[in-house]
Amino acid sequence: MNAEKRAEIFRRLHAINPNPTTELEYQTPFELLVAVLLSAQATDVSVNAATRRLFPRANTPQKIAKLGVAGVEPFIKTIGLYRTKAKHLIKTCELLIAHHGGAVPENREALEALPGVGRKTANVVLNTAFGWSSIAVDTHIFRVANRTKIGPGKTVMEVEKRLERLVPDVYKRNAHHWLILHGRYICKARKPECWRCPINDLCEFRTKTLPPD
């Protein structure tokens, strides 16, 4: 895919949705960190349902740490892997209190040192909470980047690095939000809805799908 085509793709996505953001519900960087930590192998809908119960009761590292694992589990038990996530969340809160004054660090290395926080989670927090131009490659972005040829790669890291290099700077801040939403609602895994795709003519996916009968 050439640079002109790639720039036009992001221009159109920007025109449709000028201010994209995560569908996870949060008010503070810490709430976002919690939501993203809980979102592994879970839908945003299920995470939002859980945090609507949890955050009114406890929405700071100090309050959640005080609940303990047993106290957190009932709030998040509808989410997959909730027992492991509860343990990671409590340990994360303890580390934030011990090493960062209870604040979420604006630092990739410090974020990735927290239990249950990998590169993707760190990228989401840095981008969405702190305004970094980081690109968090999840399954949606990996699929869209390869299917459209916007930024193909064999691994998540390869796709991330390629997108960081190829996405025009003016669009980089919001790129991963646009690609996630595009993958979630149009360029779906099992059957992309090419007939209603706003970048259909620019996408290099060979077997475009037709409208249902």
Number of E-type strands? 0
**CATH topology (level 3) name of the largest domain:** Endonuclease III, domain 1
The end-to-end span amounts to 32 Å
Q: Mean pLDDT, as a whole number? A: 94
The chain-level structural class is mainly alpha
The geometry reads as elongated
Order of helices and strands: HHHHHHHHHHH
**CATH architecture annotation name of the largest domain:** Orthogonal Bundle
Q: Helix segment count?
A: 11
Low-confidence residue ranges: none
**Domain module tally:** 2
Biggest sheet features: none
CATH-level-4 superfamily name of the largest domain = Hypothetical protein, domain 2
- Strand coverage percent: under 5%
- The oligomerization state is single chain
| Helix share bin | 55-70%
Can you tell me about this structure?
- The chain is mostly helical.
- 57% of the residues lie in helices and 0% in strands.
- It has two domains: 3-20 and 135-196, Helix-hairpin-Helix base-excision DNA repair enzymes (C-terminal) (Endonuclease Iii, domain 2), CATH 1.10.1670.10; 29-128, Orthogonal Bundle (Endonuclease III, domain 1).
- The chain has helices spanning 3-16, 29-38, 44-54, 61-76, 82-100, 108-112, 119-128, 139-148, 156-166, 169-172, 175-185.
- The model has no long low-confidence stretch (mean pLDDT 94).
- It is built from eleven helices and no strands.
- The longest helix has 19 residues, at 82-100.
- It starts with a helix and ends in a 28-residue tail after the last helix.
